[in-house]
Amino acid sequence: MTTVRARLILPINQDPIENGVVTIQNGRVTSVGRWDASHQHSTNHVIDLGARIIMPGLVNAHCHLDYSNMAGKIPPPSNFSDWIKSILVLKSHWDYSDYAESWLAGAAQALRTGTTTLADVEAVPELLPQVWESTPLRLFSFLEMTGVRSNQNPKATLDQALDFIQKLPSNNHHTLGLSPHAPYSTSPQLLRLTSIAAQQLGLRTTIHVAESHEEFEMFMAGKGLLFDWLKNQRPMTECGLGSPVAYLHQQGLLSPNLLAIHVNYLATGDLQLLANNQVNVAHCPRSHHYFDHAPFPFQSMRDAGINICLATDSLASIKKKGRKLPELNLFQELQTFAAIHPTLCPSEMLRMVTVNAAKALGRCRELGEISLDAHADLIGIPYEGDLHQSAEFLVKANPVPDFIMIQGQPSLSPAG
């Protein structure tokens, strides 16, 4: 057994614990509480981290590791359609080794900035499982499916993904799921088939939806820049009939099993559809700022009881700071979000990168919290400030962890 001790434990699902201790066995938490004489005289291996905050490892609910080395390659565009065209051009010049190098670079960034669980939309599944083995990160790999521009048969697209999942079974550390890319880039048949397969096989699904005003205009009004670009590449019979969210509902995709990415633009009735179907939503603050989207409807979603988490998205849609390239850093997403919502309780914001994200991935009480039998995925952050201000520090200061543990195994310690 291992005991991790620190000045402050933030379990997330319960009150902070001063002079706290977490006991771990076989990669799971066996207890969390205050340090006392029983711990002092136990035979456990003790890791005493001193003046640090120990909290659950962060859970990044949405990312594209494949695109990490595209950071800074696409200046903020004038419209969303131009960005899609730019990234397609970039991708056309990349080969397997480019994607592998990019994936590995992104995984290393995420880990060193405090993420221990990451949900990745995988456009190049051939990278798996080799890249999995290169990192201690706990990974959810959602296999990306499109098919509109290639005119691939929807059933063949899904069967290919399901065959891959069957050959590479999931476990506690690596989980596979399905990701039809977006309403505008997939056919209604693929969405319906994905919904049926996910329900039958118990697979998590994720999809980008209502990300841009152009997508919203395409489905609501049957016009706009995205509509004009795609009208010769796909049927447009479903456009002009309602919102992207309503369209997903018609195809049977809205469910508690779904993690909807972005959801920036809502029509009347969309909130109720999301809430009634217990859909999870991932908001990506820095990507949202990059595209200069309309304000994210956070308060409306929160009031409707929707589970909201924060995520990074890919580095292809995050602005540089001067000459400095962006990193896959959830603490920076928290910092950006906190600046927009200064009155929101910091503890609630922390939940959006821990327990809320774990719920969105179907792993409540296992990830994103320090509690009995949860996975021992922990990070330690140096802190000598006021204990009552620790949550505010975490969401506003962009802290740097110097202790990282996944499944009870340290991958970074203050001694290096």
Helix-strand layout with pairing:
Elements lengths: L1 E8 L7 E9 L2 E7 L2 H4 L4 E4 L3 E5 L1 E6 L16 H13 L3 H17 L2 E8 L15 E8 L8 H14 L6 E7 L7 H14 L3 E5 L3 H9 L3 H6 L13 H7 L7 E5 L7 H7 L3 E4 L1 H7 L6 H6 L4 E3 L19 H11 L5 H6 L3 H6 L17 E5 L7 H7 L6 E4 L2 E4 L4
Parallel strand pairs: 1-4, 1-5, 6-7, 7-8, 8-9, 10-11, 11-12, 12-13
Antiparallel strand pairs: 1-2, 2-3, 5-14, 14-15, 15-16
Helix pairs in contact: 4-5
Can you tell me about this structure?
This protein has 416 residues and is α/β, with parallel strands linked by helices. The protein has two domains: 2-56 and 369-412, Urease, subunit C, domain 1; 58-360, Alpha-Beta Barrel (TIM Barrel). It has helices at residues 37-40, 80-92, 96-112, 154-167, 188-201, 213-221, 225-230, 244-250, 270-276, 285-291, 298-303, 330-340, 346-351, 355-360, 390-396, and strands at 2-9, 17-25, 28-34, 45-48, 52-56, 58-63, 115-122, 138-145, 174-180, 205-209, 258-262, 280-283, 308-310, 378-382, 403-406, 409-412. The strands form three sheets. Strands 1, 2, 3, 4, 5, 14, 15 and 16 form an eight-stranded mixed beta sheet that branches. A four-stranded parallel beta sheet has the order 6-7-8-9. Strands 10-11-12-13 form a four-stranded parallel beta sheet. Strand 15 and strand 16 form a beta hairpin. The longest helix has 17 residues, at 96-112. The mean pLDDT is 95.
